[in-house]
Amino acid sequence: MADTYGYKRTVVGAHYGWRDFLVQRITALLMGVFTLLVLVQLLLVKGPIGYDAWAGIFAPQWMKALTFSVIVALAWHAWIGICSIWYDYAKPAGLRLVLQALAAVWLVSCGGWAVQVLWRL
């Protein structure tokens, strides 16, 4: 009986909730700071805000790198949220696997499209 308690007992999966919690908060913070940065830059634009103003905001290399990081953070943030929904509401494992695969394809596609838009500027 003593073998099932104490340091010999292994519980798996419990740490995933903590990691996902932290990732959600960190990615949300990054996206919030990025949004504020873009809003401040928009407020500093003189004249009408057109394509040239937007291209000017995203033209510097540091802004492209930051935007790429935010795209990755957004995809990771969304992946954790979508997986949580599938784990809560899609009970059959096969259905959950299909839904997660479709979500992964969708998120990678959206991320690729966003990067393509960013690199065209």
Give structural notes.
- The model has no long low-confidence stretch (mean pLDDT 89).
- This protein has 4 helices and no strands.
- It has a single domain (2-120), classed as Fumarate reductase/succinate dehydrogenase, transmembrane subunit (3 helical TM bundles of succinate and fumarate reductases, Up-down Bundle), CATH 1.20.1300.10.
- It starts with 13 loop residues before the first helix and ends with a helix.
- By secondary structure, the chain is an all-alpha fold.
Major sheet characteristics: none
Return the CATH architecture: Up-down Bundle
CATH fold type? 3 helical TM bundles of succinate and fumarate reductases
User: End-to-end span in angstroms?
Assistant: 66 Å
- Any idea of the CATH class? Mainly Alpha
Overall domain count: 1
Helices and strands in order, then pairings?
Layout: H1 14-44, H2 51-58, H3 61-89, H4 93-120
Structural features:
4 helices, 121 residues, mainly alpha, single chain, 3 helical TM bundles of succinate and fumarate reductases
Quick structural gist:
This protein has 121 residues and is an all-alpha fold.
